[in-house]
């Protein structure tokens, strides 16, 4: 799911890399960090009616104004204080709870309420997943879309699942070096030495990494640190726009320590054209996709490549899309926003003739290399889908029988407009989305143009957050043989 032809837009951090804020305005800080109320209204007691899409409780003030209440669950009677007043709604935090919802649990992470990530830990896991399905259904209903009564939930374990993360580095006013994730609703860093959702190999790196950064002569010159763990190897990438010469030896010594644990260390240095330098043997970073009916596939990655955070749920998503589309020899497939080949390579392995489209030259090279690595005949090509007419030209050129669409959060509105109006178009379309709001908008356009929703699944890619992936299979009712 890579951006085509341009960088991803900046996203307000929510603690762990890759998790962005969702609608309803900025999110309220947790009660332990909530600012003083910005209005003159005294604290009031309200009953939480339901959950907003971002997981906050929704209540009504005595005057009837909507309140979004952080860390409040339906059915709870809570005393709240408003900390941000807006025209149509207010944002509030809990001062006291009169009762607990039966779906409230003790958060498993010691940093809950300070770190801005994993902000649904106070909800039981089944409640989190029911909420995600309900959010997809409601957002689609707003666009006039009716979804199947039963929607599959793709999920796995609730801890130790995240295989990539980005850590911020900062030096506070007292000179303390902080290494961690962003606080809720803030750019302030929360210093951490453990994380409930990181895979064990990455979690074990947090404390020694913080130790070495705190020992640097110029820790302020470290921008951020990226961690990734794959089946082929584990790596740390340290971003330093302005490296300090006196710290080079410290990083090399740390790289030697890491190498004994099977972890590689790289420095990404410079501003405009940063240069990646491995301090030791480069790792063989690669994802392994094991899917029913296919030999295992290896997808090589490099630091900075988009890689789904949850390997087990990603494999379930790919398997479901392959099951729905059932690619076979002789069929033509077009995969837009193809990334490293997450969906392209399995379709090609099943025998389909695949054209995989990416926007960045390096990603196109990675796609082609991954195809060669697995002995697959796949056409990897570069195109900017933001340019008007590009999608139409690709559809005409490939005459695809099926289309896989896995866009960034902004969705693929222009592409869906093209599909809706096209005379010749794929009979099947698998849309994989990380934002149900833009998915609903785009699918409404497709259904108005003659596509029908066939299958829907929700993937709990980011456990303990309000974020999810949604998969939809759409079928062209204008095609011969469509039921």
TrEMBL record:
S-adenosyl-L-methionine binds at residues 308, 337, 358, 406. Residues 1-11 have a biased composition (Basic residues). Residues 36-96 form the TRAM domain. Keywords: 4Fe-4S, Iron, Iron-sulfur, Metal-binding, Methyltransferase, S-adenosyl-L-methionine, Transferase. It holds the Pfam family TRAM. InterPro entries: MeTrfase_TrmA_AS (IPR030390), NA-bd_OB-fold (IPR012340), SAM-dependent_MTases_sf (IPR029063), TRAM_dom (IPR002792), U5_MeTrfase_fam (IPR010280). SUPFAM superfamilies: Nucleic acid-binding proteins (SSF50249), S-adenosyl-L-methionine-dependent methyltransferases (SSF53335). PROSITE patterns: SAM_MT_RNA_M5U, TRAM, TRMA_1. Belongs to the class I-like SAM-binding methyltransferase superfamily. RNA M5U methyltransferase family. This is TRAM domain-containing protein. It comes from Halomonas piscis.
């Amino acid at each position: 799911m890579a951006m085509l032809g341009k960088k991803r837009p900046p996203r307000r951090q929510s603690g762990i890399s890759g998790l962005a804020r969702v609608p309803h305005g900025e999110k309220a800080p947790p009660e332990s960090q909530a600012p003083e109320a910005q209005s003159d209204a005294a604290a009031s007691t309200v009953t939480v009616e339901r959950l907003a899409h971002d997981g906050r409780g929704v209540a009504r003030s005595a005057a009837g104004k909507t309140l979004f209440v952080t860390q409040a669950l339906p059915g709870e009677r809570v005393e709240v204080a408003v900390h941000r007043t807006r025209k149509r709604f207010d944002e509030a935090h809990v001062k006291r709870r009169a009762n607990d919802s039966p779906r409230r649990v003790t958060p498993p992470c010691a940093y809950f309420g300070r770190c801005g990530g994993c902000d649904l830990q106070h909800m039981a896991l089944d409640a989190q997943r029911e909420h995600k399905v309900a959010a997809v259904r409601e957002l689609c209903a707003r666009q006039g879309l009716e979804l199947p009564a039963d929607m599959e939930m793709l999920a796995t374990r609730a801890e130790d699942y995240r295989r990539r993360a980005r850590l911020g580095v900062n030096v506070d006013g007292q000179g303390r070096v902080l290494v961690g994730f962003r606080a809720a609703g803030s750019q302030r860093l929360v210093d951490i030495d453990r994380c409930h959702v990181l895979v064990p190999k990455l979690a074990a790196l947090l404390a020694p990494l913080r130790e070495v950064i705190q020992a640097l002569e110029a820790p302020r010159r470290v921008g951020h640190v990226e961690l990734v763990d794959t089946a082929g190897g584990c790596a740390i990438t340290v971003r330093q726009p302005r490296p300090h010469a006196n710290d080079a030896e410290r990083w090399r010594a740390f790289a030697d320590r890491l190498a004994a644990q099977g972890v590689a260390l790289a420095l990404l240095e410079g501003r405009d054209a940063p240069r990646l330098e491995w301090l030791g043997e480069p790792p063989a970073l690669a994802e392994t996709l094991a899917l029913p009916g296919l030999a295992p596939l290896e997808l090589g990655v490099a630091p900075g490549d988009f890689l789904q955070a949850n390997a087990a749920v990603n494999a379930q998503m790919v398997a479901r899309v392959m099951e729905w589309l059932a690619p076979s020899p002789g069929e033509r497939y077009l995969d837009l926003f193809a990334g490293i080949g997450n969906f392209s390579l399995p379709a090609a392995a099943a025998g389909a003739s695949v054209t995989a489209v990416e926007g960045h030259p390096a990603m196109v090279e990675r796609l082609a290399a991954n195809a060669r690595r697995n002995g697959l005949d796949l056409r990897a090509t570069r195109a900017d889908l933001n340019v008007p007419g590009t999608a139409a030209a690709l559809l005409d050129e490939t005459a695809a029988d099926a289309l896989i669409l896995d866009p960034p959060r902004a969705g693929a509105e222009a592409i869906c407009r093209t599909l809706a109006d096209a005379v010749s178009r794929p009979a099947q379309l698998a849309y994989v989305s990380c934002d149900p709001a833009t998915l609903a908008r785009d699918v409404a356009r497709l259904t108005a143009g003659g596509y029908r929703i066939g299958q829907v699944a929700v993937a709990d890619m980011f456990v303990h957050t309000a974020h999810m992936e949604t998969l939809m299979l759409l079928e062209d009712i204008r095609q011969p043989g469509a039921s």
